[in-house]
Amino acid sequence: MKAKFLLLMLSAALMSITSGCATMISGTSEPVTINSSPDGASITQNGIILGKTPTTISLKREANPVLELSKEGYQKQSVPLNTSFNPWVLSNVIWCMSCVLSTTTDYASGAAWQYAPNHYYSILYPEGTTPSPSDVKKNNARAYIINNYIDIMKAINSTSWQAPSAGQRNDEYLEALFALLEIPEKEKPEAFKKIKLISETAKDIPIFAEDVVKAF
Fold first, then answer.
1. Which residues touch 170 (CB under 8 Å, ≥6 apart)?
2. Paired residues of 76 in beta bridges
3. HSE (CB half, 13 Å, CA atoms) of 159?
4. How far apart are CA 134 and CA 138, in angstroms?
5. Strand ranges (DSSP E) for 40-132?
6. What is the pTM (predicted TM-score) of this model?
7. What is the Cα–Cα distance from 92 to 19, expressed in whole angstroms?
């Protein structure tokens, strides 16, 4: 009985060392939502069809993969997916003194990465057309808002915009949005107030994005 218990404990220890905490807890895939305008675009990765927009797909975790959207009559659109480091990998250091094997497993399985954001929106342009710089600006801003809506809303509701002093920075998501909207530095405080006001009335994500783009 004692020998069986020791064997069980040894097996569990070996599994924890070789499996990787991120692999066991987070898994090797993650749901990612893909939307497009217009709908019905085929989603492919490395030539493999994953579905059609709008849809949520279980996508293998890996560092910064690229999807491709295509629809008859429209130009193909590449969609780079952003990934960030999965903090569960750090638990390998906490739970095992010899964590090289478990950490290597997490990177090999892709579990060391997580999609951030995990919601993407792309705009397809008709074949044979060249969008104007103004259209590109608006579409890029619209897509950015939809893709990063949760983080933008967190920033709007938890901060107030002010000219950053030495050593201080404003929220990176708002900074990126203002850059896409080409808002001058001196106009950012007023633009922040305007976007916050829009967020209080436009609760639907696409409508919020559209109203923000129209406002600037």
1. 159, 161, 162, 164, 188
2. none
3. 20
4. 6
5. 42-45, 48-52, 55-60, 66-70, 77-80, 83-85, 113-115, 119-123
6. 0.68
7. 10
Q: Which has the closest alpha carbon to 117: 94, 149, 89? A: 149
Residue ranges per structural domain of the chain: 17-123, 133-215
8 A C-beta contact, residue 16 and residue 100: no
- Helices 133-147 and 172-180 cross at an angle (nearest 10°) of 160
pLDDT tens digits along 143-182: 999 999 999 999 888 866 665 554 445 678 899 999 999 9
CA–CA gap between residue 210 and residue 197 (Å, rounded) = 14
Q: How far apart are CA 167 and CA 165, in angstroms?
A: 6
- CA dist 149 and 208 (Å) reads 9
Beta bridge partners of 58: 31
Distance between CA atoms of residues 105 and 135, nearest Å = 45
Give the residue among 76, 195, 187 at the shortest CA–CA distance from 144. 195
CB 68 within 8 A of CB 76: yes
> What digits encode the pLDDT tens for the residues 66-111?
999 999 999 999 999 887 765 444 444 444 444 544 444 434 444 5
β-pairing, 119-123 vs 29-37, is parallel
CB 114 within 8 A of CB 81: no
Residue 194's alpha-carbon distances to 41, 58, 191, 208, 214, in angstroms, are: 34, 37, 5, 12, 12
What's the token pair of residue 108? 């090999």
